[in-house]
Specification:
- A 6-stranded mixed sheet has the order 4-5-3-6-7-8, sandwiched between helices. A 3-stranded antiparallel sheet has the order 9-13-12.
- The chain folds into 2 domains: 199 residues, Rossmann fold; 375 residues, no CATH class.
- The longest helix has 39 residues.
- The two termini are 35 Å apart.
- 63% of the residues lie in helices and 7% in strands.
- It has 29 helices and 13 strands.
- It is of the alpha/beta class.
- β12 and β13 form a beta hairpin.
- It holds the Pfam family NXPE4_C.
Length: 756
Amino acid sequence: FKGDDTCEYLLSSGRFLGEKVWQPHSCMMHKYKNSEAKNCLIDKHIAFVGDSRIRQLFYSFIKLINPQVKEEGNKHGNIPFEDKSASIKVDFLWYPEVNGSMRQRIKSWTEASTAKPHIIVAGAATWSIKIHNGSNEALTQYKINITSIAPLLEKLAKSSDVYWVLQDPVYEDLLSESRKMITNEKIDAYNEAAVRILNSSSRNSKAKVKVFSVSKLIAQETIMKSSDGLHLPESSRETNAMILMNVYCNKILKPIDGSCCQPQPPLTLIQKLAFCFFALSVIGYIIINLIHRNNYRKNKSCADLESGEEKKPAISTPTVSTLEMLLHSFCKLGLIMSYFYLCDRANLFMKENKFYTHSSFFIPIIYVLVLGVFYTENTKETKVLNREQTDEWKGWMQLVILIYHISGASTFLPVYMHIRVLVAAYLFQTGYGHFSYFWIKGDFGVYRVCQVLFRLNFLVVVLCIVMDRPYQFYYFVPLVTVWFIIIYVTLAIWPQIVQKKANGNCFWHFGLLLKLICLLLCIYFLSYSQGAFEKIFSFWPLSKCFELNGNVYEWWFRWKLDRYVVFHGMLFAFIYLALQKRQVLSEGKGDPLFSSRVSNVLLFISVVSFLTYSIWASSCKNKTDCNELHPSVSVVQILAFILIRNIPGYVRSVYSSFFAWFGKISLELFICQYHIWLAADTKGILVLIPGYPMLNVMVSTFIFVCVAHEISQITNDLAQIVVPKDNPTLLKRLLCIAGFFSGLLLFSAIQDRSRH
């Protein structure tokens, strides 16, 4: 750890990921769009001062503002550019040598009467080497001239951003005869002189001229692709321009995936209160622990004195009070949340951009899937979608999704489409699991609802407070929460139809189907009526939960993407349980689900359907078009997988305990990855051990999985305390929770007002 000045890293160090993607050391670089560049540079004046290499950088920079610009005009003269829509003025000033003319121009900006540019990018040396045939006298004169310019640049740096661009190496084999004297040895000597003079001068001044040395590193990798050995290829120039844009604009626009040059965000009022609460929990737990230990020692010594003889202490576990368990859980949670904050809000750990390659996605997938096979065990029961099997299903899907996120595989459309099916399969299980519970148990009590809502939302609510993120940011939890409420309301409203009632009269089955049809019509209406959907979720306080960036469009998009799959899960559960009740299925150990002929036919159809969907997903050309079809066709691959997994008796009778273990903490894994495995709210990768990517992934993954498991335990412990079975006590707790959220809304309103 060398400090939190990521601007210094951005300007001086980095490496290539692949051939064209530049990765700055320790931080993430945002790829600016034209609209973002204009928004950042509105009413700004930028000046590029120097030779033909600076002119190249000038053109690459203005193309970020207006991609239609062509490289025209006098190559050895000044070139103006203006974007009137955003009042942006960018000038290239031709000063190929560091001499009196350049000094005079820079001096004119230091005078009070002249308007100063907001950004100044300067640099030159190759012309001095060329004109003077690489003589030592020219280098001496260069040192004198840059020494005289340095104080003027520092004076400008007090009110403007000033960058001195070091000279890039050349590819000597491609240089023309008139440029053969420009050698890398000479360039290094000029760069060394510039750095020494500018740095020594900056030590005595608060204002600092920033040395743009990263261009030299980029050129070392790409100069051999140059057309003349002197000027950089276009991709390298674009990278340099993007670095300049990040240096200046990141602190203004604060893009999530641009951590370079961004200051640490200040603590909000809610965050301060949260940290105080966790600190008090730690102190309270320590005090109670000390009191209990002291009482235990006193009781032990009294017992020994009364007996008059030495006894071996009986091995007994001291009873843990509800308060102690509560404080213990909050104490652990406080330490874990501190780690979350340090990883993704404090500028303590490094962050890097994702970079997708086929090997970075498929090799870990193959490794994990093979590993899971070695943990095969027999299931306790052999029913379709039994508990072990659904845990296993959640587990391997979650591991695949994690690998998908860390490898940046969303850029590869076939992989994206298959991952969409996995997310849909989670929601399918939501529909299947909750419908099955309510249908079989007939338990529509408040306790069940509160338990489910608490387990789903506890971690996300804590993260919203600690990480200062809206509820909708963790989109999957709002999704499963709303669908659970929809399932509950659908089945709980009059008439309540459950299996026990339906067994007595087949008419009730039709009643339930009618309910499901009404649900399907509501889903269909809302999916094609964006206005109605947004009106429902724009009412306060729902808007506080479902708004992201000031509107609920993101929530509508996420809901619409998998709108039918929960209904499919409910319908599948209904059909399966009806067939099971009529003993149509053979669910004995080792028995095929149906008769041999029917099983073989269904298995063949399932395999063909599974492969057909994969072929279709792999041939997708347009993400928008494929997303439109996805809600209707994703169920094909889900049902095909269920049948393939359950029709053969042997396959249904075994499961992978490795995948099942991860399945039990799949929700925590999905949420925790946002901040302590990935970084910058999933846009990048957390770097705990810089320079060793594989070791870093191993260490961060180990911590991440342990933390997710621990949070799962904490959630289970707190669920027993916060949501008791006793109804009067539960009502009191619900009133307390309502008070807590009312306070949260109040503080949030105060916070928003202070921000505006």
